Structure formats: structure tokens, C-alpha cells
Amino acid sequence: MFAFVRLALMFLVVLTLIYVCMYFYIREGAKMRLERDWLNAGQPDEREDWIDARLEPKAQNIRRWLVGLVYVLPSVAVTVFVYLTN
Measuring CA to CA, which residue among 68, 76, 4, 60 is closest to residue 27? Predict the structure, then answer.
């Protein structure tokens, strides 16, 4: 039982590292696109305020999407694999 708990904790740590890296990578890409849109819109307001106002709803969407992709999908895949092999 101890080995299973240790494996589950390592699995969780690895998935958390992947989640954090992917979150910052995807968020930075969205921020770059918003900076380009800000320039194309004719620089309507202060750049950081304009970008932050539009980035926050996207960041919430990114978080929701990544939780499913990084935590739920691999956990379900491992569970199905273990169930089918035993």
C-alpha cells in the first residue's frame, strides 16, 4: 500500500509540474496575441490594463481546460489501463 501511495504522489507532482509549465506557456501565447491585437486596435488604452482585462477570462478558461487535459485524462487512462490488464 505504501508503494502505491508513493507512486500516486510522484504522479501528482509530475502532473503538477506539467500543468504549471503548460499554463504559463499557453498564457504567454495568449498574451502575445493580445499585444498584437492591441497594436492593431490603434493602442486604445494603457497596454497592460487593456491586456489584463482581456486576459483574465482567457486564463480562467485555460485553467479549466488544462485541469481536464493534465489531471483527469492521464488519471482516467492509467485507471483504464490497470483495470484492463488485471
Answer: 60
Closest among 75, 83, 71, 82 to 17, alpha carbons compared: 71
Contacts 24+ apart (CB under 8 A), 15-22: 15/70, 15/71, 15/74, 18/70, 19/66, 19/67, 19/70, 19/71, 22/66, 22/69, 22/70
What does the alpha-carbon distance between residue 43 and residue 47 come to, in Å, rounded to a whole number?
Answer: 7
pTM here is 0.81
What average pLDDT does the segment 8-37 reach?
93
